[in-house]
From TrEMBL:
Residue ranges of domain Aldehyde dehydrogenase in the record: 3-455
Name of the protein described by the UniProt record: Succinate-semialdehyde dehydrogenase / glutarate-semialdehyde dehydrogenase
Family per similarity comment: Belongs to the aldehyde dehydrogenase family.
Keyword Ion transport: no
């Protein structure tokens, strides 16, 4: 895939970039390795000051950076601005909390292990490679960078090839904020070059957010090199609606949860599993609200759904929908690409799906929702857990016992009750099953790329 900005609204190439040579990649790895020697000896207070400076830059430049996101991957402008501001919040969160998260933890009774004192300490590992996707090109990268840098690690960013200008913006952000030269750098390389970077002994760990095949490849390379890896892969998150739910809130949130970021989010609700008692009303209202969404130029503030980020992504989504329809699915709203330039796909709702339809098991990465009728809570949980994914989930019920039952039963990294899944700096984020392993954000996220050192003193 070419390293280029191809505007998804028009399909036109805005700017192309020459990939970094092997020599340049080696130079940047060496720079990250050398920068770690300096960064690990700085104080939490110094690193916090630089993180806050980076947050200040993000907020000061939000207009231009948000427009860049729209041009590179097509999200509506208001959502792009919100992503920048959320990223600044994430930087400030780790500036505030990193020292407490990584504080020494003394053993309350060291005599139990024959010591006068015993404790554990978190220490940074070194240069960490991040392989990041295009769908939240600033937030995804910074939710890695903020904890990694706060802990004293350095970062190497292999960003998606269709957001190179965002990658280069982030390449310069931390140096402008005061971090040592080489503390955070972008690598303009293709996916074929990632394995060699993972294998380099100066790179100590790797994190990837992306597809399941990419995750398997990176995890295999990291495992062979005996290096830590964290994976956040795909999701086909269930949105379960029970009879006691507030149907007005459930419908309104369901539409947003499926179409935010033009439907291109790993944690977007994709499968809407509705109890038979409220299925007919929910499905009617959900389909009507989906059909009423404003599709158009993402730079227009009135637009609710813009284009998909890539032509191949739009075509893959269309194939999933066409396969489902060919196998008997009923179209309640939308389907198909509108007659206009760019990589748009009409927001779509499908029902009555055949078990052998690909979309039942595969992730639909775009504004396409699938509806399932559940006979009872047991049936709803069965449908929710039937895919290989387990990223997050959303359950709508006002029955406390039912809420607790679903929290226990759902195979997912998170359960949101009467709300849509959102990532917060304050909460750990990650999945189970084919959705990956490890956690980002909160205390768990900053500790992933540290050495938990045990200290025993006689």
């Amino acid at each position: 895939m070419a390293i280029a900005t191809i505007n998804p609204t028009t399909g036109e190439t805005e700017r192309a970039f020459t990939p970094h040579t092997a020599a340049e990649v080696q130079r940047r790895i060496a720079l990250a390795h050398d920068a770690f020697a300096a960064l690990k000896d700085t104080t939490f207070a110094e690193r916090a000051r630089w993180l806050r400076a980076a947050a200040d830059l993000l907020e000061a430049e939000v207009d231009d950076t948000a427009r860049l996101l729209v041009v590179e991957m097509g999200k509506p402008i208001a959502q792009a601005e919100a992503e920048i501001r959320k990223s600044a919040k994430g930087l400030r969160y780790y500036a505030e909390h990193a020292e407490a998260f990584l504080a020494d933890e003394p053993l309350s009774d060291p005599s139990a292990v024959g010591a006068s004192k015993a404790w554990t300490r978190y220490e940074p590992l070194g240069a960490v490679l991040a392989v990041m996707p295009w769908n939240f090109p600033v937030w995804q990268a910074l939710r890695f960078a903020a904890p990694a840098l706060a802990a004293g690690n350095t970062g190497l960013l292999k960003h998606a090839s269709n957001v190179p200008q965002t990658a280069l913006y982030l390449d310069g952000l931390f140096a402008r904020a005061g971090f040592p030269e080489g503390a955070f750098q972008a690598l303009l390389i293709g996916s074929g070059e990632v394995k060699a970077v993972v294998e380099d002994p100066r790179v100590k760990a790797v994190t990837l957010t992306g597809s399941e095949p990419a995750g398997r490849a990176v995890a295999a390379a990291a495992g062979a090199a005996i290096k830590k890896s964290v994976l956040e892969l795909g999701g086909s998150d269930p949105f379960i609606v029970l009879p006691s739910a507030d149907l007005d809130a459930a419908v309104e949130t369901a539409v947003k949860a499926r179409t935010i970021n033009n439907g291109q989010s790993c944690i977007a609700s994709k499968r809407f599993i509705v109890h038979a008692d409220v299925y007919d009303e929910f499905s009617r209202r959900f389909a009507e609200a989906t059909a009423a969404l404003v599709v158009g130029d993402p730079l227009d503030p009135e637009t609710e759904v813009g284009p998909l980020a890539t032509e191949s992504g739009r075509d893959d989504l269309a194939e999933l929908v066409d396969d489902a329809i060919a196998k008997g699915a009923k179209v309640l709203a939308g389907s198909g690409a509108p007659e206009r330039p760019g990589w748009f796909y009409t927001p779509t709702v499908l029902a009555d799906l055949s078990e052998d339809a690909r979309i039942v098991q595969e992730e639909a990465f775009g504004p396409v929702a699938t509806l399932y009728r559940a006979e009872d809570a047991e049936d709803a949980a069965r449908i929710a857990n039937q895919t290989t994914f387990g990223l997050s989930s959303s359950v709508w019920t006002n029955d406390p016992e039912e809420q607790e039952w679903f929290i226990r039963r759902l195979d997912a990294g998170a359960v949101f009750v009467n709300g849509m899944t959102v990532s917060f700096p304050e909460l750990p984020f990650g999945g189970v099953k084919a959705s990956g392993y490890g956690r980002e954000l909160a205390a768990a996220g900053i500790r992933e790329f540290t050495n938990l050192k045990t200290v025993w003193r006689s």
